[in-house]
Every structure is written in C-alpha cells, then in structure tokens.
Design a protein that fits this description.
This protein is α/β, with parallel strands linked by helices and 320 residues long. The chain has a domain of 64 residues: YebC, transcriptional regulation domain (Alpha-Beta Plaits, 2-Layer Sandwich). Helix content is 35%, strand content 31%. It is built from 11 helices and 14 strands. The chain has a 6-stranded mixed β-sheet with strand order 6-7-8-3-9-10, sandwiched between helices. A hairpin with a 2-residue loop joins strand 9 and strand 10. The two termini are 42 Å apart.
Length: 320
C-alpha cells in the first residue's frame, strides 16, 4: 500500500503508568500495531478500560508513549503539519457553556487562524452539516447530550481536517442521538474524510465501519474488515414465531427445537440447526398454523468480542 494511503500507523505502541504510593506499574497499552487507511471509517473497539482513550491521547500528542511509535500522515504525531490535518472530539469534552453555538465555533476557528467572512461562512456550513442551525444562538448550557455531541463534532471539523478522530462519540446518547451521530459519520465518509472512532457499542461499529480493531487489556486481539471477522455469510441459528400451533404440531416440532417459549397462543421457537427450517415449515403448514416470522441469526461483532473476552478470562485463570 502506498505510504500516502496510511493516515494513522502505530508500531508496538505501549503506555505504562505509575500508580499509587509505591509507583506500581500498570500497562494501559501493550505493543499495539495498527493502521488506518485513507477514506475509511475505522472502528477502535473494546470494553471500558481496554486502553482505547489512552491510545487516542497518544495519537493526539496529549500524552507520550512509553515505547513504540505513532505516525499521522507519515509524520510524528506532534508535527504541526500533521496536527493541522486532524479534527478531534474527546470522550468527555469540556465546553464553555456560556457560549452560543456560533461563539463556540468562532473560538475554535480562531485557534486555527480563521477570521472574518471565511470563518463566518465555515461556522454556518458546519451548523448546517450537524443540524444545529436552529440552535446557533442558544447557549451550550441549554443543550442536551446529543446536541452537545453534534456541536462537538462541528468543532472537530472547523479546520476542514482530513482525519476526524472521535473518542466514544455515542456514549451516553439515547437511540435518537446515536442515530444522529451515526448519520453524521456516514456523511463525513461520503465527503471524503477518514474517520476513526472508538466505541464499546459494537452494534454501531458493525453498521458504520469498513474495518475495525479490537483491543482487550491494552492488546490488539483482532483486526480486519467487519464481514471477514464475523463470517457474515454463515447463519448460526433460526428463530420462528408461530401462531395457533396445535398440540400435535408442537409435539412434532419439539425434536427440532433448541428452545420453545409460549406467549399465549404464540410460540417463539429457536431451531437447533438452520438445516431444519424446511422440516419445521412443513410441520407448521400441516398443522394449519400461522407463521408470523422467520429470522436467521448470524454472527455479530458482539458475539466475536464476547468469545474473545471469555477466552482471555479462561487463559488468565489457567495461568493463575
């Protein structure tokens, strides 16, 4: 791959903190090597405390690594040329809440050397992009969490960056707020931006990401395209919802079912194997029952990650 297509690259990146009175060593990031490519949405995934925010702080030059290196646009992360191409929204940002949306974005525009008509045009464009035109003269202290996230993303775009880094952008949002942020990320990709975001909400990553990296206890445990990681073409179970199945039909269906849950006249049936679908449908037809739904279940990022966490825990207990 041409080096110009690598926007972020880390090689054996590590961070060790000293904590407590005795200076106990705690490894937050352990030999992390990953890359983010131009034009993609890259998900950096893991549970709380996995090392995601520590990694992002090293990429942003906010803290220094203990070992290894990180590059942005093939330059050291503290290089001013690289920094000028990056927009960043931290996980828990502090905003001056007495400012309005316009004043807030003007303030950040000044930090990037934008002034006058150029800055005013940019502020208006960004408020339109994030759907906050209606709140442009409203103080931030009156914003909901979702509104703050949207205006926070606007400030991350004030310098028209090539790379947008968002740390847990959907954390604490309600379903509507999460959808709004997801739509924003997709719009950023359509406009040619490279987006890297961290999250512990795996469903959002599955919907958005071209590639993901999973981190657990500071170590990279999986990376690649989402479809490859979750084996998207494989159906692992099938769920049927059936209305008014006769007792005789139920007895014929029971050997094929892993689980049957009765809800009045309605049955929720999980088949033992996808190959049993046709046999189950024949039983439903013969009993003159009504099939409400037939839902195949495939692997998800969440399934993959839970399996990895359990494997790590088992390994840890074997070592102890």
């Amino acid at each position: 791959m041409p080096s110009g297509d690598l926007i972020v690259k880390t090689e054996q990146l590590s961070k060790v903190f000293r904590v407590g009175f005795w200076g106990r060593r705690v490894t937050a990031v352990d030999g992390l090597s990953l890359d983010v490519r131009r034009g993609e949405v890259f998900g950096f995934l893991g549970p709380n405390g996995a090392g995601k925010t520590t990694t992002i702080k090293m990429l942003m030059g906010l803290i220094y690594p203990t070992g290894g290196q990180a590059l942005l646009f093939s330059r050291p992360v503290c290089d001013p040329v690289a920094k000028a191409k990056v927009g960043f929204l931290p996980e828990s940002p502090y905003f001056y809440d007495y400012l309005t949306s316009r004043e807030f974005l003007r303030f950040y525009g000044h930090l990037f050397g934008l002034w006058g008509a150029t800055l005013e045009k940019r502020v208006d464009e960004l408020l339109e992009v994030v759907g906050m035109v209606h709140a442009r003269d409203l103080q931030l202290r009156k914003f909901s969490k979702g509104m703050l996230q949207r205006v926070g993303i606007a400030q991350a775009l004030i310098n028209d960056p090539e790379l947008v880094v968002l740390d847990e952008p959907m954390s604490g949002l309600d379903p509507i707020g999460r959808k709004e942020v997801r739509d924003l990320i997709l719009r950023l990709k359509e406009s040619g931006k490279t987006v890297m975001f961290s999250s512990h909400i795996l469903h959002d990553a599955e919907l958005l990401c071209d590639r993901v990296a999973m981190i657990l206890k500071g170590k990279l445990v999986a990376s690649g395209q989402v479809a490859e990681l979750i084996d998207q073409g494989t159906t692992h179970s099938v769920e049927m919802v059936i209305d008014h199945l006769s007792p005789d039909g139920l007895e014929h269906l029971r050997p094929l079912a892993e689980k049957i849950v009765a809800q009045g006249n309605r049955l929720l049936v999980v088949l033992k194997h996808p190959r049993d679908v046709e046999s189950a449908l024949n039983i439903v037809r013969a009993a003159k029952a009504t099939l409400i739904s037939l839902t195949p279940h495939k692997s998800s990022l969440e399934d993959l990650f839970i399996g990895m966490v359990k494997g790590q825990q088992s390994y840890g207990s074997d070592q102890s």
